[in-house]
Amino acid sequence: MNKIILIGSGGSGKSTLARKMGKKLNTEVHHLDLLFWKSGWVGVPKDEQRRIQTDLVKQEQWIIDGNYGGTIDIRLRAADTIIFLDMPRLLCVYRVFKRRFQYRNQTRPDMRAGTEKVRLEFLKWVWNYPKKKKPQILARLEELSDGKNIIILRSPREARTFLHNID
After folding, report:
1. What's the confidence (pLDDT) of residue 116?
2. Which pairs count as long-range contacts for 46-50, CB under 8 Å and 24+ apart, including other chains?
3. pTM
4. In 3D, which of 136, 131, 102, 119 has the Cα closest to residue 15?
5. Cβ neighbours of residue 17 under 8 Å, at least 6 residues apart?
């Protein structure tokens, strides 16, 4: 595992697992939310997102967390390991609210400066992820299954066990 991406619903634990893996594997972690949002929640244009990712994936070793479906192919092609956090929807929604309060009046370590807002649009995306996004992700992972190490983690326990067993 040298080039690792983590994908999954908001609140699934991508950033947390990426940070813990980075420490354990002594590998630099890149949080796409940190790279693709400017202060004040202004998004980075797609062409800049592509350029940033194209440069990142040229490195010999990395961990990248985040979805960004419009540019995911850059990461999927370059990764040797794809980790899909397929967590229950209620857990994801709970975690979205939990981190909002956990980081109240401060910046999350994987985000740009500023207070994270829980918007209705984002909550709908998280809630609908199992029906709308997950089938697409699973189909894409099936296409890649021959050449990539694909790991699907379906519970916090599976994620902890996975983290414990990597070296």
Report:
1. 57
2. 46/70, 46/71, 50/74
3. 0.89
4. 102
5. 6, 65, 83, 85, 159, 163
